[in-house]
Amino acid sequence: MNNKIIFVLSGIGVAIGLTSAYLSGVEKKLPIPVFNPAPNPYQKGIYANGMIESYLPSGENINIYPEVAGVVTHILVSEGQKVSKDTPLLSMDDSVQKATTEQLKSQADAALAMLEELKHQPRKEVLEVAKAQMMSAQASFNSAQIQMEKQRKSSELDPQSVSKDTLDNAINAAKVAKANFEVAKKQYNLTKAGAWVYDIKNQEQQYNALYKSYTAATALLSKYTIKAKSDGVVLSIMAAVGSYMSPQGIYGTYTGDMNPVMVMGSLQNQLAVRCYIDEILVPKLPSTARMQAKMFIRGTAVSIPLEFVRLQPYISPKIQLSNQRTERVDVRVLPIIFRFDKSDNINVYPGQLVDVYVGEK
Question: pTM value?
Answer without folding.
Answer: 0.68
